[in-house]
Amino acid sequence: MSNHTRPSTYKKKQRRRPFRRKYCIFCAEKAKGIDYKQLDLIRQFTDDRGKMIPRRKAGTCAKHQRQLALAIKRARFLALLPYDAEHVRIYGR
Amino acid sequence: MGKLRSYELYVVLRPELDEEAIQAFTDHLTQLVTDHQGSVASIQVKNVRKLAYAIEKTLEGRDIILQLRLPPGPTKEIERLLQLNETVLRYLTTRIPDLPEPEEEETTSDDSSPAKEIEEVVEEEPTSPDAPEAAIETEAVDSALEEPEEEEIQQ
To answer: A80 lies in a domain?
Structure first.
């Protein structure tokens, strides 16, 4: 005799968090390009340590993430944004 | 001559340069561009700002943004000369969407200085209290405010 009863946990209704779908704000605003001089905008896509926020967290599409990454790298080169947490610690954000 | 392309040249200069030195630098750049059959569409000289990290032990820098129309080749030559210039901390040349073609400039090829508009961009929070641009602006505003008062007195 086989006793293939499912564990009780399967029967319980799994609790789900309210899910809010992420979307690319650049697509939503129909942005033509991302400029490295728009510091207020691109700073939103870096964390406190100056690191870029990944797509899976920011919700940007692949195309705009590429443009954003280029803009952040250009801004870093011109010392508009920090490269490193050490820069943030010494010179501020 | 190849087709002209539009570029943006972002230069970070040392903060200790005075207005004359900055003017000389921008004049030198415009001369370089015009020598290479290009033209300068606009020049923005910004206030001294704090850098995100130290470059050559300097914590401040002054930004100059030029919009240029150039054939594809000479950008390398301009970048080479910028690299040799000790007052330049950083420079970056990027392609931008095509700028409108300048009017009447191609017909007159005199030695007169090229038409350019120097825009003094005054930031909301100047980092140095004795910024020369701010001083010029306040003087201009004061003189503008004084003129109507004198007229009233004469009447």
So the answer is: yes
pLDDT at B12 over 90: yes
Which residues does residue B66 pair with via DSSP β-bridges, in sequence order?
Answer: B9, B43
Of A36, A74, A80, the CB nearest to B52: A80
Q: Are B45 and B22 in contact (CB under 8 A)?
A: yes
Instruction: For chain B, list the strands marked E by DSSP.
Output: 5-13, 39-55, 58-70, 88-95, 118-121
Question: Closest residue of B to A86, CA-based?
Answer: B53
pLDDT for the residue A17: 78
> A78, A80, A83, A87: best mutation site toward chain B, by most B Cβ within 10 Å?
A78
Domains in chain A, number: 1
Rounded to two decimals, the pTM is 0.70
In chain A, which residues have their Cβ closer than 8 Å to the Cβ of B92?
74, 77-78
Average pLDDT of span B115-140: 45
* Selected residue with higher pLDDT from B90 and A4: B90
Q: Is residue A31 a part of any domain in this protein?
A: yes
Which residue in chain B is spatially nearest to A79 when comparing CA positions?
B52
Taking CA atoms, B149 is separated from A72, A91, B66, B140, in Å, by 51, 48, 40, 15
